[in-house]
C-alpha cells in the first residue's frame, strides 16, 4: 500500500479548464508540485478550475495551498467527461495577511475522475492557487468503475 499525490502533472494530471488565465501564472502551475508557482485569477467571482485525473482515483485527503481565498467549494465527478459534479465540501477559509493558506480536507475515501474547485469569494479582488494535493492509496487494479 502506497500513498500517491494524484494532483501532479508527473502523474498525468491536467488542469483542463480555468476561468481566467495569465501567461505568467497559468493554471498548469497548480499541478507542478511547487508551492512557489501559482495560478492567479483576474478579478471577479466566482472563479473555478477543473483537474482531470484521466482515470478514476480514490482520494482520502485533499490539501489546497492558496492565497486570499474566502469561500471555496469542491466538487467531484466520476463521469468520463467533466459533467455531473457532486458537491464534496464548501468552506470559508481563514485569512492571515502575507501567509499562504493551507487547508486540509479529509474524506471517507471519495472516488473522482474530475475535481472542480469553485472560488465563490475572496479576501481581495485577486486570489492565487499554488498547489492542490490529492492523497490516495494507489490501487493495483485499473478496472474500477
Automatic annotation (TrEMBL):
The keyword S-adenosyl-L-methionine does not apply. It is found in: Cell projection, Cilium. Residues 16-127 form the F5/8 type C domain. GO terms for biological process: heart development; intraciliary transport; kidney development; left/right axis specification; lung development; skeletal system development; smoothened signaling pathway; spermatogenesis. GO terms for molecular function: metal ion binding. One of its GO terms (cellular component) is centrosome. Keywords: Calcium, Cell projection, Cilium, Metal-binding. InterPro entries: FA58C, Galactose-bd-like_sf, IFT25. Gene3D superfamilies: Galactose-binding domain-like. Component of the IFT complex B required for sonic hedgehog/SHH signaling. May mediate transport of SHH components: required for the export of SMO and PTCH1 receptors out of the cilium and the accumulation of GLI2 at the ciliary tip in response to activation of the SHH pathway, suggesting it is involved in the dynamic transport of SHH signaling molecules within the cilium. Not required for ciliary assembly. Its role in intraflagellar transport is mainly seen in tissues rich in ciliated cells such as kidney and testis. Essential for male fertility, spermiogenesis and sperm flagella formation. Component of the IFT complex B, at least composed of IFT20, IFT22, IFT25, IFT27, IFT46, IFT52, TRAF3IP1/IFT54, IFT57, IFT74, IFT80, IFT81, and IFT88. Interacts with IFT27. Interacts with IFT88. Belongs to the IFT25 family. This is Intraflagellar transport protein 25 homolog.
